[in-house]
Design brief:
Shape: globular
Largest sheet: none
Number of helices: 8
Number of strands: 0
Strand content: under 5%
Number of domains: 1
Radius of gyration: 18 Å
Length: 186
Amino acid sequence: MNDVTRILSAIEQGDPHASEQLLPLVYNELRKLASQRLAQEQPGQTLQATALVHEAYLRLVGGDPNEQWDNRGHFFAAAAEAMRRIVVENARRKKSVKRGGDHRRADIDVAELPDASDDKLVLLDEALTKLAESDAPKAELVKLRYFAGLTTREAAKLLGISTATADRYWVYARAWLQQQMSANRD
């Protein structure tokens, strides 16, 4: 049992100091995942990797007291899901009319075409939710690859599948999501 799994077990047992021990062990890895995820965003993204990590960590450790993680891989899968939700919530918040979502941010130095990344992110989230209902393993792979920035090999290891299977899942999920997003865009 590695340190992360041991501490996760202690958190489940109700040890009040265990969550303090967990953050230093997982922070750098979560920060790396958040940085990779946010690097895929369009320019003008206001969410920073540090804020994403802190919010995800708070949701994981301070959220549902009944939440239990079986091991390190399960914890990082939950972290990927938390990051996904935060990024999607941020996109929806920016898109909402109440917050000026019908206006686009323009760089003062260089006028750029308005980017539709928030719209695409919302469409992706809706399609991913549908995929999770019909094929949860493929949806989990997408979350780990897209939202956590893991490689196919890393995601396969966390999911307990072969890299070849993960490659097949990835090809199928990308095509399925693209088709769903195109249908919803019209």
